[in-house]
Amino acid sequence: MLQIRQGLRNIKEDYFDGRHWLFRGVAVLLAAYFLLALGLGYYWNSEPDLAAQPTAGTVTGATTTQALLHLTRTLMDKPGGYLANDMTLPGLFMDNIPNWEYGVLIQVRDMSRAMRKDFSRSQSQSTEDKDLAIAEPQFNFDSESWILPSSEGEYRTGMKALQRYLQRLADRPQGLAQFYARADNLTRWLGDVETRLGSLSQRLSASVGQRRLNTDLAGDSAATQSTLSAAELEIKTPWSEIDDVFYEARGASWALIHLLRAVEVDFAPVLEKKNALVSLRQIIRELESTQETVWSPMIMNGSGFGLVANHSLVMASYISRANAAIIDLRSLLTQG
């Protein structure tokens, strides 16, 4: 009887000892996983550098198309890949780079739409390019879909269509694709850019909150709107979204720098004729200032004239100046 009890006791001790080592093993694996995720998160959280100044392509429109391809490739192939739809660590808990990606993606969508409806068509009654008609809706797919289908898969389909358009564009003897570098085309795309930057500037400035007069119907005495609005509005970005807006603005500005540099090449004759080349370069200069290194470990949100910096207001200043320069540039382009 004593031997049986002793045997049972030994089995029980071996069982608990085995579970002890199992728990220790799981704990070590979890700790290693979290450390690896922390290291990857630090590495993936770095924003891509600006590419070198583009050179003239072999044909009009090639530089702009290549710039658009560069933006999409960067979204897909940068460290960590596309993170906005990640469902695992560390991407699941990262928000700075996903918001940066969204800022870039918005500019990709705007440019792909402009290429489909304006740059590749000679007039309003002309047919749209077959590959750009594929690329534009692909880039407008849900940015946070992670499976069936994934955002990356849809965006890569758009990239392939854009690459086919570039190949046909370069085949000049065949004339299978076109890119029309005209002042009216450029003005319409710049109008979209102006609207985007204006919205970002307002959201950045609202980091500290501001009371704003309602000017929605200003300038037209007969204008109406669907619902009534207060004469004075309180505009304030929630504190949890301040860094989100900041990094979205960083991403949008990064993308615009590449696109505007490409436009400088493809639309050079038009810009020189309108004496607008310097104006475009000044816009690029203002946007380049938005890419300065952020030395603070977090986005500060001090009051406008307080002791603590407000990174959002600094970013809003650069974007507002770029936006004002775009308004002037559009005016130059519309003049005869």
Q: Approximately how much beta-strand content do the residues carry?
A: under 5%
Indicate the overall shape: globular
- Share of helix among residues? 55-70%
**Overall SS class:** mainly alpha
Mean pLDDT: 87
- Count of helical stretches: 10
Q: How are strands sequenced across the largest beta sheet? A: 1-2
Describe the main β-sheet briefly. Answer: 2 strands, antiparallel
Radius of gyration: 26 Å
Q: Helix and strand succession? A: HHHHHHEEHHHH
How many β strands by DSSP? Answer: 2
Tally of structural domains: 2
Q: Which regions have little confidence, pLDDT < 50, spanning 5+ residues?
A: none
How many angstroms does the end-to-end distance come to? Answer: 110 Å
Explain what this protein looks like in three dimensions:
The chain is mostly helical. The protein has two domains: 57-178, no CATH class; 181-211 and 230-336. The protein contains ten helices and two strands. Strands 1-2 form a two-stranded antiparallel sheet. Helix 6 runs antiparallel to helix 10, helix 7 packs parallel to helix 10 (311-334) and helix 9 (277-288) packs antiparallel against helix 10 (311-334). The longest helix has 43 residues, at 2-44.
Provide a compact summary of the structure:
With 336 residues, the chain is mainly α.
